[in-house]
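[job 4471] stage=fold_predict status=RUNNING
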Amino acid sequence: MPGYISLRVSPTKTAKFIFSQKQDPMKQNIYITGAGHGSGKSVIVLAMMEFLSGHGDKVGFFRPVIRSDEQYDPLIQLIAERYQLDLAYEEMYGCSSSEARELMTANRDDELLKRILAKYRSLQTKCDRVLCAGTDYREGHVALEFDFNSDVANNLGCSILPVVRGSDRSNSEIINAAGGFLKSLQERHCDILATVINSVPGSQLKSLKQQLEKSPLAGSPVYLIPQEPLLSKPTIGDIARHLDTRVIYGEATGMNRIVSNYKVAAMQVPDFLDYVEEGSLIITPSDRADIILACFLSHPSTAYPRISGLLLTGRQKPESQVAKLLSGLGKPPFSILSVASDTFTTALDVSR
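[job 4471] inference complete, writing structure tokens
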């Protein structure tokens, strides 16, 4: 296939264009892997899933390894709920990170791959095609995780779609990172679908495209995704993990809501309602029943912006009458988190 450097205006359009370049693309199973932590791989996974699920066939989702310290993998939960996958959660991953670490420490890598392959093949029998997402590089062992992802993709018989971070890098750093990643995959005889350079600052797009066309990468398909400031903002789930909060209520869709800003609600309700903005995370003491009720009432109202979530501070609990009232309203319209620290300390932690 001839090489080309393409600028796409959205991840979903990139997915559509990638598939338009391949013969029988819909028969492929794809393994999306980042070149390191913070590549924005999840956005590309969502774009690919959006494209594949729109063609009438049953698409499965699979992760070879999930983190042991999370009750549920947030990406699996989000994909399963958004695309209404008729699959059990346990079917969509190979093993936990603690199991994988134990087997690799004991030099039982082959057994690890066999376990992952067995679960993958079982999932394959229930789907027309499978989209896979590699590890998240949170363990700090980039070289080991790279080897693992390429080995798994080859053993599963998937085409690889590598994703490289474009933010906070010069053009030469981006090209070197993408080139080195691509070369390593080629040395491992991986079937490379294309390369995506994600979150490229708008000021660099034109010059990066020109430099890529003169680089060794010009011989293979490369797609540039412009930086979207909103995507760099944290989600409710990110904040929950960062602050180690207790989740009072939170479904996958709510935990993946973007937090555009945060507001400390220490004023009276009328002032609070004038202060709130779309996508706000409201930080308020747990005993502020008036603010808690105002959040619930403002959400369905067309007269006020919709908040992303509510973060309750301090060791107090909402009064039992308030909790009873809220429970009678049914499923909360946003995620509710709780943290033991005071409001001032919590606001500082969130801002970091």
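[job 4471] summary: The chain has 14 helices and 13 strands.
[job 4471] exit 0
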